[in-house]
Amino acid sequence: MKCINKKLLISLSCILMASLYTACGNAAIRMPFSDFNKSHEDTFNISSYEELMAEAFAENIAVEKEDVLDIFSLEDSSAGILVDVKNKDILYQQNAFKTMYPASLTKIMTALLVLENSNLDDTVTCTSAVKNIAFNDAVLLNLNPGDTMTVDQALHLMLINSYNDVAIALACHVSGTEEAFNDLMNKRALELGATHTHFNNSHGLPDEEHVTCVHDLYLIFNELIKYDKFKEIIQLHDYSTVYHDNNGNDINATANTTNAFFRGIYDKPENVTILGGKTGTTTDAGFCLMLLSQDKYGNSYISVILNEDSRDSLYGKMSELLGELK
Q1: Rounded to an integer, what distance in angstroms lies between the CA atom of residue 56 and that of residue 210?
Q2: How far, in Å, CA of 47 to CA of 198, rounded?
Q3: What is the Cα–Cα distance from 215 to 200, expressed in whole angstroms?
Q4: How far apart are alpha carbons 173 and 147 in whole angstroms?
């Protein structure tokens, strides 16, 4: 009798959730990760209750306004989104669910998991994994096994200068191994409703199965900005600190912002304050940028653009998009 009642309860719950979801716009249910070349138009049969819950959660975080921006547009190969954080309105989106490579925007998920699962004054002790980067042009602090720093120091170095070996050090600090951290990333992504995302590393260096979309990045970033420490870090233009090698010797480290708005290379739009964000660039991912900004009334906005073909184009398009805020 108990088994029958339990099965009946599960069945009724699934039916109820499916009914509610259908009532909210009859949106197609999308696969968390299959073939990254598929567009978000591809649909599938529900394979698990968890996927349904995640998709429903994602769709209800923010909704597109009827008066969504129609002046601004990107190239078909790019993707973008602009969201009013307080009112949960999607003001603009293009290719919002198209899976793309995120490059170092990956590090926002790494930062979220670090803040959720560790203390800022915890000691990060580097393992041999910090040497597991085969890309010659990767941005590295050149950490060695046995080097130590605090979580707070590591977050600053990773987010401001985008050091990839620091991301690995943090991943191993949280989960013990890179593989275990990847599993945690994907589990947390699903919990947040990021159903078009699959992470294969903590840093975003090229991997054909490491993909996301601008809508999913919004979901992750939206959760991350709940942490004051994160917002404090991304507003910094530079950072200096001292960490230690395995013999306790001091090692100086600096981080300079990768945000070209902060560096004065490009002009920000009028009446908009850029609070900070994350950049990312690889050959496959193109030029990527995610920002937290405020309008002249103090309202906050999340904006993301992926896969622009040049830095000039990326910052020009982001400035144009944010310039639509009046």
Answers
A1: 23
A2: 17
A3: 19
A4: 12
User: Any residues with CB less than 8 A from the CB of 180 and at least 6 apart, and which?
Assistant: none
DSSP 164-184: HHHHHHHHHHHHSSHHHHHHH
198 vs 210: CA distance, rounded Å = 5
Q: What is the pLDDT of residues 182-224, one digit of tens each?
A: 999 999 999 999 999 999 999 999 999 999 999 999 999 999 9
Sign of CA dihedral 21, 31, 69, 226: positive
In this structure, which long-range contacts are made by residues 313-317, counting pairs with CB atoms below 8 Å and at least 24 apart in sequence? Answer: 313/287, 314/287, 314/288, 314/289, 315/260, 315/261, 315/265, 315/266, 315/289, 316/266, 317/74, 317/78, 317/80
Residue 320 tokens read as: 């144009």
What residues contact 164, with CB distance under 8 A and at least 6 apart? 104, 133, 138, 139, 140, 203, 204, 205
Q: Token pair for residue 272?
A: 């908009």
Q: Which CATH superfamily is domain 103-322 in?
A: DD-peptidase/beta-lactamase superfamily (3.40.710.10)
d(CA 181, CA 117): 11
SS3 252: strand
Q: How far is Cα 114 from Cα 167, in angstroms, rounded to an integer? A: 10
Q: Under a CB-based contact definition with an 8 Å cutoff, are residues 31 and 42 in contact?
A: yes
Question: What is the C-alpha separation between 139 and 165, in angstroms, rounded?
Answer: 8
Prediction pTM value: 0.82
Whole-angstrom Cα Rg for the chain: 20
The DSSP-derived string for 230-261 is: HHHHHT-SEEEEEEE-TT--EEEEEEE---TT
Residue 29 and residue 41 in contact, taking contact as beta carbons nearer than 8 Å: no
Comparing 54 with 155, the larger pLDDT belongs to 155
The pLDDT of residue 275 = 97
pLDDT at 63: 55
Beta pairing class for 286-295 and 63-64: unpaired
Taking the domains of the chain in order of start, what are their residue ranges?
1-60, 103-322
